[in-house]
């Protein structure tokens, strides 16, 4: 009995991979993502932010541009098509039974179940928390998706075209956007087929390196989750925008808060 007890104590604790049915919305508010603050979860570093000129910041304590500060969402947080059936991007999330400690910098494979993207999959990294979201709700970041409750875009880029909620309504309106946001804006009307808040099934997966290279954030338990088995062999070749370029400055390692 004693040997069994010791063996049980030595066994690694199982990590729960979140999964279920979810609902999506869209936004691009330019604010500093919630997971950019230190201490939110056990991660390699908080999510990278940029200044108003899209230069990466090294100070994780820099206040949000939505509150008069200097930290904003980097333009390369825009989504992109990997191929015709797969896309990568970032999202604000709120999961049933979870918290920022469990979803900050975690990745999820969303397989859409309705609308023009039915059958397509998008892998997103959670970089933000939606305080106004319902359970199992992913607010997908996409330029032109609407600023929502907070508008950090006006101090960063100037006022962006589109409604506060939902954003612009046609691909041609992307031409009014700053050059660094145009590809992500086009993605919405190309790969995403202008889908209006589609539903999906989701499963937590290991984060693709393409996402963590952009965010600078990787969870310490990331390897405990199943590897994503989708086809990522033809990066950037699908319908829609290509992988976002790194923001203007070389990406530094964020300084952990004291």
TrEMBL record:
The keyword Transferase does not apply. Residues 24-35 form the Glycosyl hydrolases family 45 active site domain. Residues 217-258 are annotated as: Disordered. SUPFAM superfamilies: Barwin-like endoglucanases. The active site is at residue 29. One of its GO terms (molecular function) is cellulase activity. Keywords: Carbohydrate metabolism, Cellulose degradation, Glycosidase, Hydrolase, Polysaccharide degradation, Signal. Residues 233-258 have a biased composition (Low complexity). It catalyses: Endohydrolysis of (1->4)-beta-D-glucosidic linkages in cellulose, lichenin and cereal beta-D-glucans. The keyword Nucleotide-binding does not apply. GO terms for biological process: cellulose catabolic process. Its EC number is 3.2.1.4. It holds the Pfam family Glyco_hydro_45. Residues 1-20 form the signal peptide. Belongs to the glycosyl hydrolase 45 (cellulase K) family. This is Cellulase. It comes from Fusarium zealandicum.
């Amino acid at each position: 009995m004693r040997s069994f007890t010791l063996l049980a104590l030595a066994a690694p604790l199982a990590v729960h991979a979140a999964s279920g049915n979810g609902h999506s919305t869209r936004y691009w508010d330019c604010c500093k993502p919630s997971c950019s603050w230190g201490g939110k979860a056990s991660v390699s570093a908080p999510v990278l932010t940029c200044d108003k000129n899209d230069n990466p910041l090294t100070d994780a304590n820099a206040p949000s541009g939505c509150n008069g500060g200097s930290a904003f969402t980097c333009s390369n947080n825009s989504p992109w098509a990997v191929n015709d059936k797969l896309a990568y991007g970032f999202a604000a999330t709120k999961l049933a039974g979870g918290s920022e400690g469990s979803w900050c910098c975690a990745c999820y494979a969303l397989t859409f179940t309705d609308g023009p993207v039915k059958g397509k999959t998008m892998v997103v990294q959670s970089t933000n928390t939606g305080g106004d979201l319902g359970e199992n709700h992913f607010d997908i970041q996409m330029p032109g998706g609407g600023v929502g409750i907070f508008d950090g875009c006006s101090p960063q880029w100037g006022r962006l075209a589109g409604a506060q909620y939902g954003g612009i309504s046609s691909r041609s309106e992307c031409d009014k956007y700053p050059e660094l946001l145009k590809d992500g804006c086009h993605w919405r009307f190309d790969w995403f087929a202008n889908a209006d808040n589609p539903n999906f099934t989701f499963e937590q997966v290991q984060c693709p390196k393409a996402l963590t290279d952009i965010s600078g954030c990787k969870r310490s338990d990331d390897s405990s989750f199943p590897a994503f088995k989708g086809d990522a062999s033809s990066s950037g070749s699908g319908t829609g925008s290509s992988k976002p370029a790194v923001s203007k400055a070389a990406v530094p390692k964020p300084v952990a808060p004291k």
